[in-house]
Write a structure and sequence with these properties.
alpha/beta; about 45% helix; globular
Length: about 260
């Protein structure tokens, strides 16, 4: 399908987890994809697979959403045929550490705040003016159960996801006159690289988080995101909270013991 006839979706943090699953789901439906991530090699491999498997157009943008100059320069330099972004999925984000506040690592705090909050702001600010000019668009922010409930030792990560919740509400109000939809998708326990990143490569500790029950997968969340994106123009999912059947709250699980 020619690019001019495809809807364009821009996914940040697309090289793994929910972002990668979204890329696959949207490619299967024929969307043209702008894929952003820091890891060029993984992004190159994903783009190759999507082109081969689904025949879709893919544009790769390798930058860190924390870097304001890189964000604005990359999006300003988009080729003309890629500028009309229909859907922005603000997926890039991470958790680092799990400790009491007074024992926390300030570098971890800064990375979470810079990625989860400031990165989302930078990318949104760069993309929104084009949507306003065209009087259409859809922003889908990836929040978390951590943005609905604060859990023990999750302090700064929970604070960043509460910020995403609040920013999504603000965007929805401010973009209402411009016919731009804003959705917030909040996953519960989802087994991706999330816990491996949080525990800095401690695979045993990361895997223990998901023992005794069936967690969500990146594809489970991607299917919900696609559902939000594919609804008619007059329908918007403002806020979606998705949990495994075995999870009732941020910290309450029905775990089976062997």
């Amino acid at each position: 399908m020619p690019l001019s006839q495809s809807k364009i979706v821009f996914i940040t943090g697309a090289s793994s987890g929910i972002g990668e699953a979204c890329a696959i789901r949207f490619a299967r439906e024929g969307y043209a994809l702008i894929l952003n991530a820091r890891r060029k090699k993984r992004l190159d491999e994903l783009a190759r697979r999507l082109k081969n498997d689904f025949g879709v157009k893919v544009l790769k943008l390798v930058f860190d959403v924390r870097n304001k100059e890189s964000v604005f320069s990359a999006i300003a330099a988009l080729p003309e045929e890629w500028k009309n972004i229909d859907i922005l999925i603000n997926n890039a984000g991470l958790a680092l550490g799990l400790s009491d506040l007074h024992e926390g690592d300030t570098q971890d705090w800064e990375q979470m705040i810079d990625t989860n909050v400031k990165g989302l702001l930078y990318v949104s600010k760069a993309v929104i003016p084009g949507m306003i000019e065209r009087k259409k668009g859809h922003i889908i922010n990836i929040g978390s159960i951590a943005g609905k409930e604060t859990y023990l030792k999750g302090n700064v990560y929970c604070a960043t996801k509460h910020a995403v919740d609040s920013l999504s509400k603000a965007m929805r109000m401010e973009l209402l006159p411009h016919n731009i939809k804003v959705s917030l998708v909040n996953p519960g326990a989802t087994q991706t690289e999330f816990s491996q990143v949080r525990f800095k490569g401690d695979t045993e500790r990361a895997d223990s988080i998901y023992k005794g029950y069936k967690p969500l997968t990146g594809d489970d969340i991607a299917r919900c995101i696609l559902f939000c994106a594919a609804l008619p123009e007059h329908v918007n999912i403002n806020d979606m909270l998705i949990m495994p059947t075995a999870q009732a709250t941020a910290g309450l699980f029905n775990k089976k013991t062997e």
